[in-house]
Write a structure and sequence with these properties.
- The structure holds two protein chains of two kinds.
- Chain A has eight helices and three strands.
- By secondary structure, chain A is mainly alpha-helical.
- A three-stranded antiparallel beta sheet of chain A has the order 1-2-3.
- In chain A, helix 1 packs across helix 3 and helix 5 packs parallel to helix 7.
- By secondary structure, chain B is an alpha+beta fold.
- The longest helix of chain B is centred in the middle third of the chain and has 9 residues.
- Classes of the chains: A mainly alpha, B alpha+beta.
- At the A-B interface, helix 1, helix 4, helix 7 and helix 8 of A face helix 2 of B.
Chain lengths: 147, 152
């Protein structure tokens, strides 16, 4: 099955069993200490774990079925992607961490959730520049501590 | 992994020819652009040639490639001095993918955000046994190799 194949290749983790590693000195996710990366004013540690698992599951579904597509409308209208958008601002820290560590198309979700658009005509089609602008925005708003 | 997704790759002499790169996609790669992501999305995240409607229609894609010198042609046979491309559409006629012919007669495709691969032309067509992805080839276009192009 297409989704399963991609999922297996994407990450060593099962989409449901998120590969976070709680340690005494902090909460880690894909080697990023997320309670250092995510500002505490947004989420408690317990909330982080629950939302992280949900986010990872939806993300892997979305990537599994759209990663080989070029159509942005297909990527952005995928059921799991829309579900992530529906969660709203609580999901922003996870989107920003994923955007920081991976190259996934979170731009539409970020726009929909934040009501902000960072893309201008001169950077249309430039994935890395759009990503850079969103990460800068995320840091400026406190969703990420560092780019 | 790709042979399970695209069963018609099996038994053919295909190969991965690039690292994963999210910065360009198949539509750009067919146009020999590996710096930008091309798509006529209404939000304007992707590049689309100036003056071409941002519609997900075959006509819009033909216009996009025409803007850099391609013209519709009747087949995929090698023609000396020309680069050919193939545009794929899904069952509703919406463009999904594009591939470019190499001098060898094989074709090169960028698979979404993933790798470039070299393959036989029809290897990426939908298979009845798998999740439908790129559909079928609908149109061929060709361009003289001497045509200058720039993506602004």
């Amino acid at each position: 099955m297409y989704y399963q194949n991609i999922s297996q290749n994407q990450s060593s983790s099962n989409p449901i069993n998120v590969d976070y590693i709680p340690k005494p000195i902090g909460l880690y996710y894909k080697n990023v200490q997320i309670n250092e990366t995510i500002s505490h004013e947004f989420l408690s540690t317990a909330e982080i774990l629950v939302k992280l698992a949900k986010f990872e599951n939806l993300k892997m579904n979305w990537l599994g079925e759209t990663k080989l597509l070029s159509s942005l409308s297909d990527k952005f209208s995928h059921k799991s992607y829309l579900e992530i958008i529906d969660i709203g601002k609580d999901i922003l820290p996870f989107i920003f961490i994923d955007l920081k560590n991976n190259d996934n198309f979170w731009f539409k979700a970020l726009k929909e959730i934040t009501g902000t658009e960072v893309v201008t005509k001169e950077i249309q089609g430039n994935f890395h520049e759009i990503k850079k602008r969103w990460l800068t925005w995320g840091v400026s708003k406190g969703y990420l501590k560092n780019k | 992994m790709y042979e399970q997704i695209f069963p018609f790759l099996q038994g053919t002499n295909w190969r991965i020819t690039s690292p994963i790169d999210p910065n360009y996609n198949c539509i750009a790669w067919a146009a020999e652009d590996n710096k930008k992501f091309w798509w006529p999305d209404e939000d304007g995240y992707a590049y689309w040639p100036e003056g071409v409607p941002r519609d997900e229609t075959l006509d819009s894609f033909i216009q996009a490639y025409s803007s850099i010198g391609f013209k519709i042609c009747k087949d995929y046979l090698i023609e000396e001095g020309f680069t050919k491309i193939a545009i794929y559409v899904d069952k509703n006629g919406k463009p999904t993918h594009a591939a470019r012919q190499l001098d060898s007669g094989k074709w090169t495709s960028k698979l979404g955000q993933e790798h470039d691969i070299e393959h036989e032309l029809f290897s990426l067509n939908n298979s009845p046994s798998t999740y439908p992805l790129y559909g079928e080839i609908k149109t061929f276009m060709k361009k003289s190799k001497n045509t200058q192009q720039s993506f602004t």
